[in-house]
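TL;DR need structure tokens for one chain.
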Amino acid sequence: MEADFRRLSDLQKDLLLHAIDSVDATSPTGGVIVYATCSVTVDENEVVVAYALRKRRNVRIESTRLPFGDQGYVRFRGKNFGPDMKLCRRYWGHKHNLDGFFVCRLRKFSNEIPVVNDEDTESEEDTEMEEEEEKVDQGRADGDEGDSLWDEEEDRKYIDESLSKQKRKRGYRVLSNGTKAKLSE
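>> reply
TL;DR here they are.
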């Protein structure tokens, strides 16, 4: 499952770079690219935009001009995305009464695709984060779950609560120990 998220993020990085390359900076509409996802994961949003900004230095983030929504993350789990990321917008289902999604508006200011060496784009933070991910992946390969990005105990509580609600809807009485008993009809 984690590999699926990584593949999605890689695909989104490629798609965004191709979109940037396809837009004409001198067009009458102004060379604007809107990157939007129906996801709230940082890996599919801020990480993708930060990657595109490192690879295509001929674009910058602009205000989305959307009147509501939370700012994009400037920092997350030790990763710094830069102050302009706050111009992006995040929408949360529980807060905005919408499906969760992310919006970023980019403006291409030059049609020249700058040559960027991979060594130039990797910061010490990127290298440290990749090393940490490799350690976690290696731990999983050895049968150890390693450091999780999620609070398993908190997640278990919500999952158990949801399962109990589903059982009650089906006519089961959920006992305090988590077992179920069919209600008489």
